[in-house]
Design brief:
heterodimer; A: mainly alpha; 17 helices; globular; B: mainly alpha
Chain lengths: 454, 454
């Protein structure tokens, strides 16, 4: 990279850069989500063995899981954390007393409502707005922490998440080990105690659910519940999944998953890392180390999984330590550094300006992705009808639409439509939508334009 | 005749006294779960439809079930308002009222986790209050009417949810019986019908008294393990409680009363500001429907012999939340009338001390009971009859009344209140009572000793 082409980032460029990053993450997120929208969610990171697992399908899986899985969500969450600081700082500059806190919390409570709508009404059980809202409720008192302490906070959550994931992994290993032992006893016709019978039952049901045949069976069952079903039918099916995810899912997994990156985002924003203030050398080192180590871990796990034909029962027995969140942190922060560096390399800035409007109305675009995919897959019946790689044609079409739509919309309006609704609800007052009459007003897009989301 | 406005000091006395009553009362409801497996609350387990245990069950459940928790919740809602009012009203704290409030709530969350996991009390309510407390802040300035409407909204949510559950149990019976009938007629069952049959027969099997006793015995054995064995077992229950049950029930169960508490506080009902006539009306207006609903609820439960699947056909709506709220308001009016007429002053004074250190007393109940009952303590778990549990309750009450009286004589706060406060301000707080009462009124934060938000 030619050092000469590296220029410092100015203030309004900085905002534009953050928008562009958000736009990038927002579009990227569809790469993963579409895998559980266009087919059974069991095929999110496992391939459908009913289809070819070589050729374009293989590459679709490889690109998704090797390069992107978890990282776009990570980036999105980092920007949510950064957005929180940005939002509150701006609010505190303009408003007195408790108003910033009021606005912040009203925003989040409405975000919670939007999350419920996205999950239940728009039929997207992978919704992230709900966990963001819950996680966001915890952030406010941490806004004045120093970057160093915020990093410690992130590490704490990383430790909790890794502990929880591993305790689940070892529970499964334990279930298998105990079950296998009892199975042997049973083969020798020994009489079993009640506890042993329970162990055996638990083992068998775990095995039935997690072998490759078991996964295929569960996926087929899910397809049956969704394919060709009415809105009410699909709603009912997803309702139970949504409720499970928003309760046990958030408590056990998702809350930690988002808090790690919220705290990282707050720290990296405050330290100026996101806005390009660190040295180029640091970005280069973080990018290389983060991406290389993340991909290395990923490669090892994917190899193992692919070799076992996505048999989770076999995988769990061979998988020594759950590195999921660690891998995500490394890879995501690596990508972030690379992107900052790229932005500082002037010739690449054009690409970012294409993405900035997408990020500026990220909330709308995010919800629109659920609406589009629900219509395409459930209403038009393309659900479970496409090859894995074909799903990416749809993703690309949605990307193209969203890029164009965002550019056009923001030429005429100040906010995306859902941003406008969100904002109006937060202030409990209809907000002006059309681009300001006085050109002066445009200079600083009302502080809250920066959607804390996304 | 006290028609004169109530003075500051007295007003605090009555709210503390009410909190003290609720705090002690809550132990009545918790003790069965500290002392025995939950199956012991089902009268079928030992066929206790007569005798002293039966009458104990009736009195405790008929008059008090859910009511003490309800009063506690009303006061938590009121306490949040009181705290915020004081913080905002004081120049030195007005600027960071939101910070103090949220730091307090986050520490409460930590205390809830400690109470649930370390003190091993799965019935902990602090965690629930903390999560709900995260939501309350933006509603503090609402007028009485919208607060009442919000409260009603949550009442309705809970009622729909509860009614739906009643219906599900009812449907399980209906479908199961139908499947069994078809089988008797030698008809072939569909997969769904087979599942109905399995669910229904499993339920019947589980409800057999000998199986209830078996499950209870297992629980008793479990709770006689070491600290860490018990921890591992209870942690699973607690995790489910804090995620799934919180999401489905406890959130609504608390929110409806927190909002009601905020509204009643604004109306002056909780602070004894209304007229005697008002409280007389409230007393009759609450007790009449409350007792009637309680009578139906418990009579139904007895007449179907604790078979929940038959409740829906007797009363096709779950009025639990309304029943307990009416009764709680009745109890509240009794206390207010005692206070208004100046009866039982010493009694109220003694209870006010208990209420002033309610946080300590609540946590202490867990510590004491766990020590008495669990295996790593004195191991009385599963050894007491239902009526004997109340001897323990009486002892703990007496201890807590005396302890509070003595402690508050020397110190400003209860010990856990002091820790909580010190953590909130991240600074060791003065504990000893060195200042005069008059000076304490000028307490810079005006918060601590007088109004535990909890």
């Amino acid at each position: 990279m030619a050092t000469a082409a590296l220029a410092p980032v100015r203030k309004n460029q900085r905002i534009q850069f953050i928008d562009a990053l958000r736009g990038f993450a927002l579009l990227g997120i569809l790469l993963m989500n579409i895998m559980s929208q266009g087919q059974s969610h069991f095929y999110y990171s496992a391939m459908n063995l009913g289809q070819s697992i070589t050729g374009p399908n293989y590459w679709a899986w490889f690109v998704e899981c090797f390069f992107f899985e978890g990282t776009m969500r990570g980036l999105f969450s980092i920007l949510f954390g950064a957005g929180t600081i940005l939002l509150i700082t701006r609010l505190e500059k303009r408003n007195k007393g408790l108003e910033p806190a009021d606005i912040y919390y009203r925003r989040l409570l409405w975000l919670l409502v939007f999350g419920l709508i996205n999950a239940f009404i728009f039929l997207w059980p992978g919704d992230i707005l709900y966990p963001y809202a819950i996680g966001g409720l915890l952030l406010f008192p941490f806004r004045n922490w120093k970057p160093k302490h915020l990093i410690w906070g992130a590490m704490f959550f990383l430790a909790v998440a890794t502990y929880r994931n591993n305790s689940d992994l070892y529970d499964s290993k334990n279930t298998i080990a105990k079950g296998k032992a009892v199975e042997q006893l049973a083969a020798q016709k020994a009489s079993l105690t009640d506890i042993q019978k329970d162990d055996l039952k638990k083992y068998q049901s775990y095995k039935d659910d997690n072998t490759k045949e078991g996964i295929a069976k569960r996926a087929a069952k899910e397809e049956q519940q969704i394919k060709g079903k009415s809105y009410a039918g699909i709603f009912t099916y997803f309702r139970d999944i949504n409720m499970r995810r928003e309760s046990a899912g958030v408590y056990n997994f998702m809350l930690w998953d988002v808090l790690i990156f919220f705290f990282l985002g707050m720290a990296l924003f405050k330290s100026g890392f996101i806005s390009g203030k660190s040295s180029n050398r640091l970005y280069a080192v973080v990018a290389v180390v983060g991406i290389a180590s993340g991909l290395l871990i990923n490669y090892y796990e994917m190899n193992l999984l692919y070799g076992l034909k996505f048999d989770n029962y076999e995988f769990v027995q061979r998988y020594p330590f759950d590195t999921y969140e660690i891998r995500r942190v490394l890879q995501t922060v690596g990508y972030l550094s690379a992107l900052v560096l790229l932005y500082k390399t002037v010739p690449f800035r054009k690409i970012f300006s294409v993405l900035a409007p997408v990020g500026q109305m990220a909330f709308t675009n995010y919800l629109m992705q659920s609406i589009f995919t629900s219509v395409i897959f459930y209403a038009f019946g393309l659900f479970a009808a496409l090859q894995r790689y074909e799903l990416y044609y749809i993703a690309i079409a949605i990307w193209a639409f969203q890029i164009v739509f965002s550019h056009v919309w923001l030429r005429y309006y100040r906010f995306g439509p859902f941003e406008w609704l969100w904002r109006s609800l937060t202030y409990w007052k209809r907000q002006p939508m059309k681009k300001a009459v006085a050109p002066g007003e445009e200079e600083e897009p009302a502080g809250e334009v920066i959607p804390a989301l996304a | 005749m006290i028609s004169a406005p109530v003075k500051e000091g007295q007003r605090i006395l009555i709210i503390d006294a009410v909190r003290g009553v609720a705090l002690l009362g809550i132990l009545m409801m918790n003790i069965p779960y500290f002392a025995n497996p939950s199956q012991y609350e089902n009268l079928n387990t030992f066929n206790q439809y007569s005798g002293i245990n039966y009458y104990t069950w009736w009195i405790v459940n008929f008059f008090f079930e859910g009511t003490m928790r309800a009063i506690f919740s009303l006061l938590f809602g009121a306490g949040c308002l009181l705290l915020l009012n004081r913080l905002e009203g004081n120049r030195s704290t007005a600027g960071n009222a939101a910070d103090i409030y949220y730091r307090r709530v986050l520490w409460l969350l930590v205390f809830g986790l400690v109470n649930a996991f370390i003190f091993q009390w799965p019935g902990d309510i602090l965690y629930i209050y903390a999560l709900c407390g995260l939501f309350l802040f933006p509603f503090r300035n609402l007028k009485v009417r919208p607060l009442l409407l919000l409260s009603l909204l949550f009442f309705i949510c809970y009622t729909i949810r509860g009614t739906y559950d009643l219906y599900v149990e009812h449907a399980m019976r209906a479908n199961g019986e139908k499947a069994l009938m078809l089988e008797q007629q030698k008809k072939l069952l569909t997969d769904d019908q087979k599942a109905d049959k399995t669910a229904w027969t499993a339920y019947l099997e589980k409800q057999k008294p000998e199986n209830l006793r078996k499950a209870a015995d297992k629980k008793i054995k479990d709770l006689h393990g070491s600290y860490f064995q018990t921890f591992a077992l209870l942690a699973v229950n607690t995790g489910r409680g804090q995620s799934v049950y919180f999401y489905q029930y406890n959130f609504f169960d608390s929110m409806c009363l927190l909002f009601l508490g905020m509204a009643l506080f604004k109306l002056g009902v909780l602070t004894g500001k209304r007229s005697k006539k008002f409280y007389w009306l409230l007393l009759f207006g609450s007790y009449i429907p409350g007792l009637a609903l309680s009578y139906f609820e418990h009579r139904n439960l007895i007449s179907v012999r604790f078979d929940n699947t038959q409740l829906f056909s007797r009363m096709p709506v779950e009025l639990y939340q309304f029943r307990r709220t009416f009764l709680a308001l009745g109890h509240l009016s009794v206390l207010m009338l005692l206070y208004k007429y100046g009866i039982a002053k010493r009694f109220l004074n003694a209870l006010a001390k208990v209420g002033q250190m309610a946080f300590t007393n609540y946590l202490m109940q867990s510590i004491i009971c766990v020590t008495i009952f669990y295996g790593f303590g004195f191991g009385l778990y599963g050894n007491l009859q239902m009526y004997q549990e109340y001897y323990v309750v009486l002892c703990i009450w007496i201890f807590q009344i005396i302890f509070s009286q003595v402690w508050m004589h020397y110190f400003n706060f209860g010990p856990f209140e002091w820790i909580w406060r010190s953590l909130t301000y991240w600074k060791k707080q003065p504990m000893k009572k060195t200042v005069t009462t008059a000076e304490r009124e000028e307490d810079p934060d005006g918060e601590g000793n007088i109004v535990p938000a909890m």
